[in-house]
Design a protein that fits this description.
Elements (H helix, E strand, L loop, with lengths): L1 H19 L18 H17 L7 H16 L9 E5 L6 E4 L3 E5 H6 L3 H16 L2 H11 L4 H14 L5 H13 L1 H7 L3 H18 L5 H15 L10 H5 L4 H15 L3 E7 L4 E7 L6 H8 L14 H4 L4 H15 L3 H13 L5 H13 L3 H14 L4 H13 L3 H14 L4 H14 L2 H11 L10 H13 L3 H14 L3 H12 L6 H24 L4 H6 L1
Parallel strand pairs: 1-3
Antiparallel strand pairs: 2-3, 4-5
Helix pairs in contact: 1-7, 1-8, 1-9, 2-7, 3-5, 3-10, 5-10, 5-11, 7-8, 10-13, 11-13, 16-18, 17-18, 18-19, 18-20, 19-20, 20-21, 20-22, 22-23, 22-24, 23-24, 24-25, 25-26, 26-27
């Protein structure tokens, strides 16, 4: 990965130097801001970027974290100025403070930003700001300018992220990477930096979105103050540099003051914007918040349930359950554990917090999860059970306990708990995937078939879910279904930035003489769909190095 990033930054430095010699003023391209890249192309580039980030293991894939982030992001997106815009929210493993928006409504958030926040409202404020960058075409205008300068667009997007993340290590090789990125990558970075007016507009519209969706409007100023504090205290060595987010989103005292003033104005308005839909029209109106009803509930009743919203933005009642402070605590600590270098390091981190007296229930959950990840399933089960006594029926805790029981040699108890969860929440992605993973560890045809039964109802909605596809591939293999396993492995590779390898796998699968009509049709359809992506990646200069070495 590091070799790739070094080459990538050098490539971008050349491209950036060329661009710097030209007139980089933004041309007047009208209000559509889409004369170069169509909506379909924007979505394609966004999806390819996410796939490449997955390929280099930069994305945190976890069903519970995904559901929390998606519910929070979609609640904001549905209340934005463009509720029909499709959004995809994903979590990056990096512990530096950063978030970014890119083409097609793809918004990435670093774990470090969530760990810095103290409330869900503060994270929502950053997400709302990034949503505004998309809805106001700030991202698109920068990308189109780069394309006009003949910069390979996918490499430019990857390079900007590589520049931000490469300087987050203390090794000499990484220090050299940081020097290259800082000295030679500035030109391409300038191509995507937002202007001061962009930032002001994103703040203003982000605050309005926060209010519409029922989050605390003080969250934006609070988060800005935390980032400013990080900027002031993190002075010193390379690891103590200014947070990446502050490089492209500088926080000033004036900006914080403006956020406070906007919050006061919005807080004085005791109504919310509600979007209602009929087959004939979409109507947006401001209505008073009924006594005893939270703004979140009032906004959600009209916005996120709108049937005319894109499917990716529809928020269910189950999703809204992820929006309270308890769920945010579980989510933040789960990210802390899953982003640690090792499970042992996570355990030591929590032990340090406990010695310092910083050990609330969320930290207790994190310690239980860290113990489970470190292989101490019995201790983890004890800790999860104690928490579950305090929070009955909590899905995160019940799943943790079931998984710990399975790995502690108590399969009957684990299965009973999983089955109870499925009866309460049929086709729940996190429950089904966690249970399927436990069944896969048993490595028996019977367990594989049961896991297939769990996941098969979710296949229709899992076309863009690499974790689901990998799990379904493995359980199909165990169940003795090699064709379905092969299709799912190919799909997982495609979604994880290995489009060429996915295409090779599908061509090999198509040669089997035991394919029925439907399987052959599915495989040929995927070959036809993936081939243009492979060609575009080659045109952008992205190749599968493993396949090239094999040939």
């Amino acid at each position: 990965m590091r070799a790739f990033l070094v080459a990538l930054v050098l490539c971008l430095a050349v491209a950036g130097g060329h661009a710097a010699a030209q007139d980089t003023r933004l041309p007047d391209i009208g209000s559509s801001a889409g004369t170069v890249l169509s909506p379909a192309q924007q979505a394609e580039y966004g999806q390819m970027l996410l796939a490449q980030l997955r390929h280099y293991d930069m994305v945190l894939e976890d069903p519970l974290v995904d559901q929390w982030l998606r519910a929070t992001g979609n609640r904001l997106a549905a209340a934005s100025d463009q509720p029909r815009q499709s959004f995809t929210f994903f979590m990056m493993k990096d512990r530096s403070i950063n978030a970014f928006a890119t083409l097609g409504g793809y918004i990435g958030v670093n774990v470090g930003l969530v760990l810095t926040a103290q409330t869900e409202d503060e994270v929502a404020a950053v997400l709302a700001h990034e949503v505004a960058h998309v809805t106001q075409n700030h991202v698109l205008r920068g990308a189109e300018r780069a394309q006009r300068d003949s910069i390979p667009l996918l490499l430019a997007m990857l390079g900007a992220i590589a520049i931000a993340s490469s300087s987050d290590s203390s090794s000499s090789g990484d220090a050299a990477m940081a020097a290259i990125a800082s000295a030679q990558g500035l030109a391409i970075q300038r191509q995507i930096d937002y202007t001061r007016s962009n930032e002001s507009e994103a703040d203003r519209l982000g605050m309005r979105t926060l209010a519409r969706s029922g989050f605390d409007v003080d969250g934006m100023a609070d988060m800005f103050e935390r980032m400013q504090a990080a900027s002031r205290t993190n002075q010193g060595g390379e690891r103590e540099r200014v947070p990446d987010y502050l490089r492209t989103h500088p926080v000033t005292t004036t900006r914080i003051s403006e956020a406070r003033q906007r919050a006061e104005q919005l807080r004085g308005d005791e109504s919310v914007v509600v979007t209602t839909a009929t087959p004939e029209a979409v109507r947006t109106e401001r209505v008073p918040v009924p006594a005893g009803t939270s703004a979140a509930a009032a906004a959600a009743a009209g916005g996120p349930f709108n049937p005319l919203l894109p499917g990716s933005l529809r928020v269910t009642a189950a999703d809204l359950a992820y929006g309270d402070s308890v769920q945010f605590g579980w989510a933040r600590e789960r990210m802390r554990v899953l982003s640690a270098n090792t499970a042992g390091a996570a355990v030591r981190e929590y032990e340090g917090m406990r010695r310092a007296g910083d050990f609330d229930d969320a930290k207790r959950y994190g310690m239980a999860l860290a113990r489970l990840q470190a292989g101490d399933a019995a201790a983890a089960a004890t800790r999860f059970a104690a928490l579950l006594d305090d929070y009955p029926d909590d899905t995160w805790l019940a799943l943790g306990l079931a998984e710990a029981q399975a790995r502690a040699g108590r399969p009957d108890e684990a299965d009973a708990r999983f089955e109870a969860l499925l009866r309460r929440m049929p086709n729940h992605r996190a429950v089904a995937l966690t249970y399927a993973g436990v069944l896969a560890e048993r490595n028996t045809p019977e367990a594989g078939r049961r896991a297939q039964d769990l996941l098969r109802p979710l296949l229709r909605t899992a076309s863009d879910d690499p974790l689901f596809q990998r799990t379904f591939a493995r359980i199909s293999e165990i169940a003795g279904d090699p064709v379905r396993a092969g299709e799912a492995y190919a799909e997982a590779d495609f979604l994880s930035g290995r489009a060429e390898r996915a295409l090779v796998q599908l061509h090999t699968l198509r040669k089997r003489d035991d394919l029925d009509y439907y399987a052959r049709a599915r495989i040929e359809a995927r070959i036809a769909a993936i081939t243009p992506t492979v060609l575009e990646l080659r045109r952008q200069g992205v190749r599968d190095e493993d396949l090239r070495r094999q040939h």
